[in-house]
UniProtKB/TrEMBL annotation, chain A:
All residue ranges annotated as the PTS EIIA type-2 domain in the record: 2-144
Pfam families named among the record's database cross-references: PTS_EIIA_2
Protein name: Transcriptional antiterminator, bglG family protein
Keywords from the named record: Cytoplasm, Kinase, Phosphotransferase system, Transferase, Transport
UniProt entry tagged with the keyword ATP-binding: no
Record localization: Cytoplasm
Matches recorded under Gene3D superfamilies: Mannitol-specific EII, Chain A
Lineage, top ranks: Bacteria, Bacillati, Bacillota, Bacilli, Bacillales
From TrEMBL, chain B:
Superkingdom: Bacteria
Gene3D superfamilies recorded: 3.40.50.2300
Tagged with keyword Glycoprotein: no
InterPro entries: PTS_EIIB-like_sf, PTS_EIIB_2, PTS_EIIB_2/3
Domain PTS EIIB type-2: 1-91
Assigned keywords, A-Z: Transferase
Protein name: PTS lactose transporter subunit IIB
One Pfam family of this chain: PTS_IIB
Amino acid sequence: MTLLKEKAVELDVELENAVDAIRLSGELLVETGCATQEYTEAMIEGYERVGPYIVIAPGIAIPHSRPDNGALQSGFSLIRLKQPISFGHEKNDPVKLVCAISGIGDNGHIEMLQKIAMVLGDKDKFNKIMHAKDYDELSKIITI
Amino acid sequence: MYILSVCGMGFGTSLMLLMDIQSMAKDHGYTVEGEATDLGSAKGKSCDLIVASSEIAASLTGEEVPVVAIDNLLDKDEIKEKVLPLIERLSKEG
């Protein structure tokens, strides 16, 4: 079973700014039982405090917070933006894909994070994600 | 050699980065020890080299050791190109 649930995916969403994108990515984690509302607020607070470091690669943001800020289980959500959004990152803006990650425990989620990194870091897979028509197609590309 | 990898939250991107560096170093015959940490805990830690995402690296000023800034944390080639020469140099010095 994939860790990416259907309800955790929104494709071609129109959003205004980085905070809205982080908020929606967090709400998807809440809806799928991966985190509490507190976790979403912590992700936004982290972005506002530390800056756009969550844009880890060109076009890709991975909002996250510490497990003790309301993570309930390991999982992730995925938003594909209709219009790319600036997160304020000097090199990796604008963001096209927002993938919020929740993890419990100190290192238990590292394996998941590495798998997500493997998928998103694979240019061929990234392109396929950017063009997938629906969740079914997406779940064949992201087999985590 | 001891490398400190730093991310914003201490969630895991720094650990992922450290593991990538260790694996890359091993492929080239170097054994690298290290620690993954968040920005708030990084200051004052003793190490030979600091590696961080470019956003975080910009906040690490006044360090006594080299600070490597990685733009694309998913790009193993960038990590290798920027970090391996320093590992090679530090190994010769040490």
